[in-house]
């Protein structure tokens, strides 16, 4: 089931969904037309629009649905395979009704339009749970509706994630330890949480004696059986730092922190990792070396980083070329860069587009990952010397780490992804 990489977002193969207006099958093009022609004459128009959008985004495998207000109405787009794609718009006279309908479903305060709010829409039969986030803008409230994963996939084990062999092995080794921190790093939308949840499942099914596992998340995205999961509630005074300080007194053997965001939380988390708990957490950073460097910038002493962090896994998600891809020619400079990496340009392909991939040229995603092992003497020396990210990266590469960029280049060389996708994800050309 997961041979193509667990992070794949499977699109709706037939490109249609059941329309609540009349319960017949309609195309995405028809949805766009209906959105632009809907009027306020129908009192149920907003309800029908919201139901259709939520159903369509779930069926299409979209991770997020964006509703952006403007002077002309409500622009709608969705994110599929990590890319935001325009879907249509709602006329101005219906925009506020659509926003209000979503807020009602998420049990938010409809009269509060000047402050951000967050809520959830419970999963209905055949649908998924949706997390709603509102944000005030010049022309009204912007809404992002995130489709939360359905039951079993987020609980897959590490072997299902399609990670490189040495990264998977490093994860397995780290999860067998009784102390130290495993940090999963990457930008937003890079699959960090999916990897972290798979680590929890790996521990639960690892065959060792049962371990006490507790989590502190903001929010809890997936319920993991056997894990004492807690959700931050800052309005009630239960913030990440308060929860973490209390959590270490709950006799946990494994602690999962949804995300380390500030210096105080990082200090408490590393202290737990140094005093007998295995810590799993996510961290926003472009790569593994930057993650270590940022911990130092937060004021964490080098000895604490060196002793407390076992390894840092950094990852990105790139789109996989559809079968309709065709051979591509690279310019001389790009081919030379591949040659320097000892890679061939012969297998490079370009996206074309067909009905199966919605004419995007891509179908699903896969992970590009690197692992920085702090057990390496050279890396340890660089950490203790308070080296910058570039020096840390150089030390890790000299110790055998294969970085994100060379891995992405290899996938491009093999025709798995394209040069355009590497540029989109990494911001640099081959």
Kindly describe this structure:
This protein is α/β, with parallel strands linked by helices. Helix content is 34%, strand content 24%. It has 14 helices and 17 strands. The protein has helices at 28-37, 45-59, 92-105, 165-175, 192-204, 240-247, 263-274, 288-297, 302-308, 332-340, 377-384, 389-398, 404-413, 419-426, and strands spanning 16-18, 25-27, 64-69, 73-80, 83-91, 117-121, 130-137, 140-147, 180-185, 213-217, 228-231, 254-257, 278-283, 309-321, 326-327, 349-350, 362-373. The strands form four sheets. Strands 11-10-12-13-9-14-17 form a seven-stranded mixed β-sheet, sandwiched between helices. Strand 3 and strand 4 (73-80) form a beta hairpin. Helix 7 (263-274) crosses helix 9. The protein is globular. It starts with 15 loop residues before the first strand and ends with a helix.
Keywords:
single chain; 430 residues; alpha/beta; seven-stranded mixed β-sheet; 17 strands; globular
With helices defined by DSSP (H or I, 4 residues minimum), what is the helix count? 14
| Overall pLDDT score | 85
Structural class: alpha/beta
Oligomeric state of the chains? single chain
Profile the largest sheet.
Answer: 7 strands, mixed
Strand content: 15-25%
Strand order of the largest sheet: 11-10-12-13-9-14-17
Radius of gyration: 23 Å
Taking the alpha carbons of the first and last residues, their distance comes to 32 Å
Uncertain regions spanning at least 5 consecutive residues: 1-26, 151-155
